[in-house]
Structure formats: structure tokens, C-alpha cells
Write a structure and sequence with these properties.
Two copies of one chain form a homodimer. The first copy, chain A, is of the alpha/beta class. Chain A has two domains: 226 residues, Aldehyde Dehydrogenase, Chain A, domain 1; 148 residues, Aldehyde Dehydrogenase, Chain A, domain 2 (3-Layer(aba) Sandwich), CATH 3.40.309.10. Chain A contains 14 helices and 16 strands. Chains A and B meet through strand 2, helix 10, helix 14, strand 13 and strand 16 of A and strand 2, helix 10, helix 14, strand 13 and strand 16 of B. Strand 13 of chain A pairs parallel with strand 16 of chain B, so a sheet runs across the interface.
């Protein structure tokens, strides 16, 4: 391990930590002005950003990158505008810092409450999309945190251009520029060294594939927000309304197949399997979805291919859906517990007791009734934006917005109150 | 690493995980009845518990244990009653599981909220006090979690007797006995193996000295609640009421010196140093406190010994207090940031603006105004009881009761709501 690498990492971490103390104290108006300023700067610098992005795209093409990975890496004027809009949206959100979430009085006379505070320094590790630099930067700054951004090597030029613009705005606004730092060398050794800086870095948010997240979680001495995968379920209950069952199954699966909150498994109550079930399967098939079914599914719809055991835990991210017929709500819940990923599940039912039971007993991060799984994100839930979706229960569970980037301290007011 | 050890650990973890699914679904009445039943059983079995404790005490004496460590290990009829009372108190607390902490409606028509759920399996690692077995067991069960209790080897007989009684009550009440398991062999190898079971165990709470906690935090693949130490500050502001300053300084330092929320450093504003300051120092000295002061402190009170650099970050847990004179609130806050442990700080002031500034800017887990630092605990803050005090900001910060043993899932209700 080279000395220069560990010196670089120490410098990054210590600067971030010092900046965190300062950004935590900046009031909402100044943070919001800086965010709006950054949005304007981004828009004005569109040409410059596209030029920097051009270098990344050229290098990617030389390396033979095509299709979706290349598409993800690409900046366009629309995407720059979307970044700017995102920053303005975050500026418009309420500031969580300083919010008192409750206050009560104790028999001792002490008035006790809890107040939101920033977490400190957040390390975000992400892959090719350069817009993450602005999106994540905006959320961290608004919540009073300093952020270390470690983007993918393939988008380094784009990320650098975006980060420099944001840092320039911070400086101009009298905010500490080091509250937003891009890790200049995106090699793995640097990440490993960063994951050891538990005295300066408070939280790690890896955004990317399951293998990246597992590696970071194993390596890290710092708490990690984990989002392994989304194996989301639609359960069509015995008492589902037929049209609603069809619409929700289709919307959950097909509205956008490549995202973590799209459905990967359909569970159908046996009492309605030959009716609603068969109809929904035909519709899905008509929409081009490959169905992988249990035996009873294949009796209903012979065109379905047999599901293998591993299909039940598979995140297809494609026009593929596993389908199983179950005999009860209990069996549906058991299936979700055994094979699910704690991400998002929905029940379609007109029976209020069943709906309530599903909500009470299924402990995934988002549990819905009569709605498409596609709603499980920070924007649709009203958090404004999200830094990611946590599928583990520590610190935050589900779509994570500004609130998830804070902690709460206890505050207490006495009048010379003494312990007896 | 012996095969038998890893088999034992796998068995413990898998049983706990299966029990967690079941205990999470038990309603409040049944959990409360089991807790009250356990309290009664403990009281009825006092003789039996004291006998088991006798074996531990004898072994401890043979090993030469004396003084406070031996005292901590000792069960008495009063301590058994206190355990029972603790369980009854926890039974009387509101159940956090199922609580909906907020609900709002989105433009899509979706009604979105958040609902508290148990974390799953909690591993608690503690040292000699056998009462922790009942206290922690009660909190985990009430919050719907399964718990793995790894007590110290010196209290194994006592812990086993208490755990067996609690498991007996669970069984009798139709609750899963494996929701509470004592780790049968308290050697370090077992702990290391448990800290690798990230698929079954959700949270680790080490209770004990800083070195234990640091070792667990470094070793663990599972999130750890950290409570390193309590270097708590009392700051006597320029506008402090003299009598209140004296009372709070004395109470914070002397009411009980061996606990983490007692004061270890006193900061005095220079404008009142020769007045209130000198008077408070004389009172502390009269109460038998050894004062270690900065130069200006020693000018005020020559009997104070010179403070060394390391004294500012020292958790004395004894009748020793570091004292520094500062020229401003800013300087006091800077001192706390640099040397503090994020545990508990209090300001004594009659100036409301200064009080508010201290509360806003000091981001320790408990920040008080005109009250003794000794109030920073779960009972005094109204949480009913506490499993520990977290001094790191992830998941929970400060005294951690039932709420800290839960997470929140998103719940959402639609009427066939589809994503456009």
C-alpha cells in the first residue's frame, strides 16, 4: 500500500470532517441559496459539462462499452437540466436540521425533547451515472453533512467537472468547499483505505450492484446502508377486484422493468387462479413477459415455462416474472419471507382485514395495498428525493431522503434541576 | 477454530432468527403477560437464584476478585426484586411495534405512512452484572425482538438461572423460548463467530469498557451500537445564576462518580471565574474532589493541580475533575468538540439566547440547559428503561429504549393506484 495513497485518504477524510463541523451550522437560507446557485451554474456550464463527458464517452467506446452502460454514462442537455432541477427541488424541501420531533415534561420538571442533527461525513460510492454527483451532493449539503463522492472511473471527467462547479458555488457562498469532495483516484485501494477511517467518516452509502455492496459491507469499519436487491412481490388475494389485479400486476412488472421496485414474482390465491389469475397471465404474456411458473401455474397457463428453485429469489430486471399459486394469505406471506429481499411487496384485495394483516405481518421496507410496487421510491413517497433505498433495518429502512441523513440528539431544559 | 464451536454458533443464530419471526407477531397483551409472569417467577425463585449466584461468587473469590467487581457480580434479594420490578415496568410501557409515526397523502392518491417494526435478532454482550440478563431480555422481548445474551464468564451460573426462568415463562405463555437464548460458552471465540452471522443477527449491543466495545466494533460484520465513554462537560456561562452553577456542578460531579453521565470537565467563563468560579471550586474541593486545572484555574484556586493534556479527554469515573477557564461560549463549544465524547453536556446560564445557541450547536447525544448531567439516561428522559447509551449517530444517539430497538417500514394504501 503506497504512502501517497494513505496520505491522500487521510487528507480527504480530515478535510471532510473539518468541513462537516462547519456545514452543520449553516442556516437553511444559506444552504438553499447555494443549492439554487449551483443549479444555475450547472445549466450555464452545459457545454463544458458535455465536453468533459465527451472524454469519458470516448474512453468508454475505446474500451468497447455499448448499450445500456454507455447510455447511463451519457450526459445530454436534458440530463444537465434534470440535475439542476433536482438541486432546486432539494432547495425547496424543508430543512431537517434543527427539527424538534417531540418534547415532553418529566416528573423531575425536566423538559425533554429530540432534535435532528446532521450525521457528519457521508461516503457515497457509486458507478457510472455522473448525475449522481449532483443529486447526492445536494441531499448531503441540504441535510448539513459533508460528503465524499467516489464515482466510477469511467465517469471521472464528468464527475470532476460537476464537482468543481458545486465546490465553486460553495466557496462563492461562503460555505466550506470541502463539504463536497470528489475522490480523485477511483481505484479500489482508495476505497479500502476510506472504509477504515471510522474516526472521520460516519456512514457509507454504496450505490450499485449487489456484489459491490456486499464487498463494501464486509470491508467497512463504518456503518453501511445496504441495498442488496429488489425481489418485489405482487400478491393477488382471493378477494381482489379483477381489473385492479390485472392493472397492478402489469404496472408493477412492465411500467419499467430494469428498476429495483419492479415486480419479480406474482403470487396468486388458488381460489381465483383459474379466473383472475389466468386472465392476468394472458395479459402479461401479451405484453411480452416471459412467465416462469410453479406446476399449478402451468396448469392454468401452459405457455409458462417451469420455474426453477432459484427463480423465486431472482431479481430479473427484465421482462421475466416468476409466478406461484398459493392456497392462503399465510402461504403468500411465508413465500415472501423465505424468498423475498425485504424491498417492496403489494397485496391486491378488497378485504380490509386481509389488507391490514398483510401490512402488519410483512416486514419489508415498503408494504403496499392496492398499489403498484413502482411507487416505492423517495419521490413517490413524498421524501422529495432519495439517496438510496435501504433493505436492512438498522438506521433507516426503505427509500432514504433527507431525514435518513440525520440523527437525533436529546435536548433537555431544567431550572437548576438536580438528581436526587 | 473447532467445528463444534461454529456448529453451536450456527444453531444459536438460526434458532434466534426463527424465533424472531414469531415473536415479532405476538400482540402486546401476550408479551406483557409473559413479562409479568417472568417477574413473578424471578421473585418466587429468589433462593434458587442466590444459590446459583453463590457458585459464581465462590469462583470469583478463589480467583481473588474483591471490591467493586465482586460487588457488581453479587445478587441480593433486593436486586432480584429490582429485576422483577424492571420487567413489570417494561410490561407497563407502550408497545412500539405497530405504531404508525406519520401518515400523509400524495398527489398520486397514495396514502403513505411509516410503521414501527422489530429489528429482528439482537446480540447483547455484557460483563459481570447478572441483572442485565433480565433487564435486556425484557426490553428485547417487549420490542418484539429475539435476543442472544452473551454475559461474562464470571456470572455464567447466575445468568443461566435467570435465563432459564425467563425461557420457562415464554414457553408457558406459548411464546417462542428461543426468543431469549443465553450463549452457553462465554469464550471469545464464540463471540467472534457470532459477529460473523450477519444473515441472522441484526444488531450488536456491547455493554462494557471502551476496549471491549472497540474490539467488537472492529471485528463485527453486524452493525454495532457504540458507547465508548462519557467525558461530560458542565459549562458555567457568564450569565449563570451563582447558586444554580454551584448546585449543578456539584450534582453533576458528585451525585455518583462512577457512572458515564457524571461530569469529568468543568468549563468556566472568565467573566465569572473569580466570583462564581472560585466559589464552585472551593465547594468541589470541600466535597473531596481533586481538581486538575488549566493555568488560569490555578490562579483562582492554587490548590488545584496542573491539568495534563490527556486530562481533557479523560473519563475519571472518580472524584477527579478537570477545570478550564474559557473566554467565550465559542471557546467552550470548541473545547467540547475537540475533547468531548459526544455523550452529555450542560450549560448553566440565565441568558436564553446563549442557552439556545448551546443546544443548537453542541451535537452531543444529550445537551442540557440548567440541569445536572446525571439526568442523561433512559429512565430520567422518560424512555422507561434503556439497553444502553449510544455515542455514535447511526441508528440511535443517546439513551436507547424500546424505540431504539425498532425500525420503521413504509406502508402505503392505494385504490388500484398505478404509476404513469
Amino acid at each position: 500500500m503506497s504512502v501517497s495513497h494513505s496520505e491522500l485518504v487521510a487528507d480527504l477524510a480530515l478535510r471532510a470532517s473539518a468541513a462537516a463541523d462547519r456545514i452543520a451550522e449553516i442556516d437553511s437560507d444559506r444552504k438553499n441559496a447555494a443549492l439554487r446557485g449551483a443549479a444555475e451554474r450547472l445549466e450555464r456550464a452545459t457545454d463544458e459539462l458535455l465536453e468533459a463527458n465527451g472524454f469519458d464517452l470516448e474512453a468508454a467506446r475505446v474500451r468497447g462499452l455499448v448499450g445500456r452502460p454507455l447510455e447511463r454514462l451519457t450526459l445530454t442537455p436534458e440530463r444537465v437540466r434534470a440535475m439542476a432541477l433536482g438541486l432546486r427541488d432539494v432547495a425547496a424541501l424543508p430543512d431537517p436540521v434543527g427539527e424538534v420531533t417531540g418534547m415532553w415534561t418529566r416528573p423531575s420538571g425536566l423538559q425533554v425533547g429530540r432534535m435532528r442533527i446532521p450525521l457528519g461525513v457521508i461516503l457515497v460510492i457509486y458507478e457510472s451515472r455522473p448525475n449522481v454527483t449532483a443529486d447526492v451532493g445536494g441531499l448531503c449539503l441540504k441535510s448539513g453533512n459533508a460528503v465524499l463522492l467516489r464515482g466510477g472511473s469511467e465517469s471521472l471527467n464528468s464527475n470532476r467537472a460537476i464537482a468543481e462547479l458545486l465546490r465553486g458555488t460553495l466557496e462563492e457562498s461562503g460555505l466550506p468547499a470541502d463539504a463536497l469532495q470528489l475522490v480523485p483516484l477511483p481505484d479500489r485501494e482508495i476505497v479500502d483505505l476510506l472504509l477504515e477511517r471510522e474516526d472521520e467518516i460516519d456512514l457509507v452509502v454504496p450505490r450499485g450492484g449487489e456484489s459491490l455492496i456486499r464487498r463494501v459491507a464486509r470491508q467497512s469499519r463504518i456503518p453501511v446502508i445496504k441495498h442488496y436487491k429488489g425481489v418485489c412481490h405482487v400478491y393477488i388475494d382471493e378477494f381482489a377486484e379483477p381489473g385492479m389485479a390485472r392493472d397492478i400486476a402489469l404496472n408493477s412488472k412492465c411500467q419499467r422493468v430494469s428498476v429495483c421496485n419492479s415486480a419479480e414474482t406474482l403470487l396468486i390465491h388458488s381460489a381465483v387462479a383459474s379466473g383472475i389469475g389466468a386472465e392476468v397471465l394472458a395479459e402479461l404474456d401479451g405484453a411480452g413477459v416471459e412467465l416462469r411458473g410453479c406446476e399449478r401455474t402451468r396448469e392454468l397457463f401452459p405457455k409458462a415455462v417451469p420455474a426453477s428453485d432459484s427463480d423465486w429469489a431472482e431479481e430479473f430486471l427484465d421482462k421475466t416474472l416468476a409466478v406461484r399459486v398459493v392456497d392462503s394469505l399465510d402461504e403468500a406471506i411465508e413465500h415472501i419471507r423465505e424468498h423475498g429481499s425485504d424491498h417492496t411487496e403489494t397485496i391486491v384485495t378488497q378485504d380490509i382485514t386481509r389488507g391490514r394483516e398483510f401490512v402488519r405481518r410483512v416486514n419489508s421496507s415498503s408494504v403496499l395495498v392496492n398499489a403498484s410496487t413502482r411507487f416505492a421510491d423517495g419521490f413517490e413517497f413524498g421524501l422529495g428525493a432519495e439517496i438510496g433505498i435501504s433493505t436492512s433495518k438498522i438506521h433507516w429502512f426503505g427509500p432514504m431522503g433527507l431525514e435518513g441523513l440525520t440523527s437525533q440528539k436529546f435536548i433537555a431544559f431544567g431550572e437548576g434541576t438536580l438528581k436526587e
